[in-house]
Structure formats: C-alpha cells, structure tokens
Amino acid sequence: MQPVLFGLFLFMYLLTVLGNLLIILVVSSDSHLHTPMYFFLSNLSLADICSVSTTIPKMIVDIVTHSRVISYVGCLTQMSLFIIFICMDDMLLTVMAYDRFVAICHPLQCSSNIKAENLTQISEFHLLGFSEDPDMQPVLFGLFLFMYLLTVLGNLLIILVVSSDSHLHTPMYFFLSNLSLADICSVSTTIPKMIVDIVTHSRVISYVGCLTQMSLFIIFICMDDMLLTVMAYDRFVAICHPLQYPVIMNTRHCGVLVLLSFLFSLLDSQLHNLTVLQFTYLKDVLISNFFCNPAQLLNLDSSENFFSNILKYIIAVLFGLFPISGIFLSYYKIIYSILRIPSPGGKFKAFSTCGTHLSVVGLFYGTSIGVYFGSSVSQSPTSCLVASVIYTLVTPMLNPFIYSLKNRDIKISLSRLHCRKL
User: Fold this and answer.
1) 88-98 residue pLDDT tens
2) What CATH fold (topology level) applies to the domain 125-421?
C-alpha cells in the first residue's frame, strides 16, 4: 500500500498547491479582480498552501522512509506553523463574511471606504521588464521557471533530509531547515508573479498587491537575516562554550529563537508598511524592478515627512545594524577562541564547522548591500534588475548547493536517503 499512498498524497498535495497558486496568479494578473473580495481570496489561497505544506510533505517523507518519528522541536514547529495558517484561514473567512455584509447591506459606503483607503490616489504600479523583445520572452520564461523550480526543490530537499535523518536533529540543522523554508517562501513572493508577467506581457501590479508583495518579501528576507544571526550565535556557543552547549541550545531555546526571529520579521514588515502608508505624494508610479522592492518603493516618496524619515532610520538600525553586529561579534569571539587552540588540526576542525555558514552570510549580505546601495547610487535599471535577481533568486538557489557540497553530514544523509529508496 505504500506506493499507492505515496502517489495519492503526492498528487493531492501538488493539486492543492497548484490550484491555489493558480487563484493567486489569476487575481494578481487581472486588474478586474483587484477588489477586496478577491484580495481576501488570494490571501486565503496563500494560507491554504502554507497550511498543507506544514503537514503533507513530512507525511510523504515518512511514507518513503518508513519512519514515523519527529523530533520534539520539529513537532512544536509544525504545530506552531499549522496553528498560524489554520487560524489565518479562520480569520480570513470571518473578514470575507464582513466584506459580503458591507457589499450587500451598505453598498454605497463600501465603494467610498475603498476609495478612502488609497491615500496616495494611486491604484496600481508599473514594474520594469527584462526585455521588450518578443523573441526573448520564451527564453526568459524557461530560464526563470527552471531557476525557481531548482530553488524550491533544492531547499525542500534540505528540509526533507534534515527532518528524516535523526543524526541531523541538532540546533544547527534545525536552523538550517528553517532557513530553507524562509528561502522557499521569499522566492515564491516574487518569482511566480514575474513569470506570469512574462507570459501575459503585463507589468502592472495593484497598489494593494504591491504592498502585500512587499510585506511578505520583507517577512521572509528578514527571517533569513535573523536566522543567519541565530546560526552565528549557535556556532559561537558550540566553539566557545562546548560544555554548556547542550544546556544553552536546548530544544526549547531553539524554538524560542526561531519564534522571536519570525516576530521580529513581522515587526519589520509592519514598520515598512507604516512608512509607505505615510506617503502623501509619489514621484512616479514606475518601480525600476521586476517586483515591489522595498528600497525602491521607499525612494518614490517625494514629500519631506519627518515621521517617515524617523521610521526609516529605526528600521535600518533594528534590522540592519543589530543583526550584522551580532554576526561580527560572534565571529570575533569564535576567531579569538580558535587562535588559542594549540594544534593546527584542532584549529582547522573548529573553523571548518563555520565555513558553510560564512559562505551563506557573505553571499546574502554581499548581494543585499549591493542592491540597496545600487538602487540609491546607480541610475542604470539593468544593473538594478541583475542585482535584484542575484539577491532574490540566485542566493536562495545556491544555498542548498553550498550546504550539500561543503557539508559532510548533509552528504552522508543524502546517501542514506538514497539507499533507503533503493
């Protein structure tokens, strides 16, 4: 029965994900559907995708590996994510009922309220395409679809390997699997919309759609940022305080660190939204990128709003300076401890555990700093587009390869998983 169950649940899972993705893409690409009802519907579809993705992939892996074991931290994480998205479904259904109540019982107030919400009097933004040449569109479509699928499958493989191998149920790989999940979510907020734009030859995104895309993108990118900082702290404790490591990085503390990372990311997203909603005049409706890049969206403000400027500085300090400072401080302590090890072999062994993390940190911060500085200094739209692709797509795509090629434990687990299937 195992192959039958595997095929059945895999088919149902893919049908669920693709069906809800189709709803999101149709609503986002058709300006006639940019209404409150379909906005809530697209968010309901996104919540449905996330809810099934917290349970079904793990069950499919259990069927393949003939294992029914889940770690304590993994169980708490799965429960937390499942409750978040199921509760999101519940709240959205309530909001959709209220929307229908207002539309039917107070139709005149409904239209005036919708207009009043748009403080900037702008209903849509125009995004920048990679090429206007019709012959290039199939090439771009195939290239970005391949890169997107490679990114999603590569990071899914990391999650499945970590969850299925009990030898990898350690804090470092727990954080790594959460990093892979954040990478999947971050690319899924930008690349599918870009692929649809290539197919439909449209570069338009609604005002609400732009704010939604920016909010989700910030949540998952900031989650990457926070998790890289937490992973640096994990390496600091493992190398500088090895005896206290099991006590300090116990399962409860690891779960709390991931939860705090998510809450900080949510706060960052809301602060960006608050900043954009303070805008009274915009320079242009053209965003020089293929998605609603927060850095370029903030640069569209033409008013001198003191409150908005203060918020920008708070965001920069809280979610830029603090995480980078935490990583630098952790590695300063790590290097100091490694230099005190007498044997060269001991030094190499200690530092080798940080190699993959340092590679990912360098790739993430190098490209992100390049995008933010490039958007404010460079006037070339092409350079901004290329930098954004590296930042939003290439970096998450390379992360699984960095961890699988440079990490001995991941290689061994991949071979074990392959042997089980055989």
Assistant:
1) 888 889 888 98
2) Rhopdopsin 7-helix transmembrane proteins (1.20.1070)
